[in-house]
Amino acid sequence: MGADERPLYERDPEAWNAALAEGNARQPRKRVATDVIVRDERNRLLLVNPTYKPDWDLPGGMAEANEAPADAARRELREELGLSVEIGALLCVDWIPPHGPWDDTIVFVFDGGTLVPAAITALQLGDDELSDFQFCPPSEAAALLRPYVWQRAEAALGAQTAGRARYLHHGIPVV
Description:
Helices cover 34% and strands 29% of the residues. By secondary structure, the protein is α/β, with parallel strands linked by helices. Helix 5 packs antiparallel against helix 6.
């Protein structure tokens, strides 16, 4: 094989990387978000009340550029609630279709464990994105969360029990 017949990645690694970067720039972008299932010792779910939307939500938030989803979950809990927990198992991945002004989103839901009373007492609102937080039984959470967010939470709780992550489309289990 002559020098000119070698693949571009062997002949000119810089040109190959430039071609890859050009292709990457044309690829669609996905928004990535995280939710974290956090409970208290009475098995109640931690919910947060965002100031920028009308319904309660699970704790978590948007990943920053080039931030791993588990790191985003950890950062969001720390920034918004002063909470440092071990981010546990992936419970489900939920694809949310485009809606309103938003492109589609992939939401990773992680197990945030069970908080002891001292950790709950230490919770504090860390920025103006949240107006409140509360622990509530799943039946109350179902009434406070948007339906597809509740379906996602319910699937995540089921994944904890089953020991197997779930794949969802807008809160509905696919597999």
